[in-house]
Amino acid sequence: MPDERVRRGPRLDQPRERGLTLRPEFDGDAFGRFAETFARFMGTGKFLFYMTLFIIVWITINVVGIFGFKFDVYPFILLNLIFSTQASYAAPLILLAQNRQTDRDKVEYEKDRQRDQRMLADTEYLTREIAALRLALGEVATRDYVRGELRDLLDDLDARLGEDTGDNGRRRRTRPEPSDRSAG
Q1: Which has the least CB within 10 A, 32, 34, 61, 175?
Q2: Alpha-carbon distance 22 to 143, whole Å?
Q3: How many structural domains comprise the chain?
Q4: Looking at the domain assignment, is residue 67 inside a domain?
Q5: DSSP three-state, residue 66
Q6: pTM for this predicted structure
Q7: How far apart are CA 158 and CA 169, in angstroms?
């Protein structure tokens, strides 16, 4: 009996099976995309044009009347009710679209911050490497430095040879001809 387990509810290691529910299920992302589309459309000139045209037609029909039929007379109560209904639905949809945009902005800001941190770390690393190279090059003899030292040594040798030969260090330097180099 110790191997038998007492089951006191659903198992946590297995997904729940969906039963019949009376609650409607909504895809939050699809509804969010609809809200963004709706909010974008309400902010366009096309929407304002269509809404203005709708109001003009509504008022014209109810002031002039078609075949003597006026379904919403002067204070236009039904038109006001339509506007109120539209506003009551538009406000939450616009807020939902703004919240989704805020969430996207937060993700983008976080990516920017991480990228900036990586770039700062890379810049600091490169700065340290350049400083190390400058220090290392400070200890290495450069080509110009070696040439200058060799020139000074050659001048010293010429001066010594000039003293020994008596021509006051005015010895003419000659370079070997290219044919002399290949012969050796």
Answers
A1: 175
A2: 87
A3: 1
A4: yes
A5: strand
A6: 0.50
A7: 5
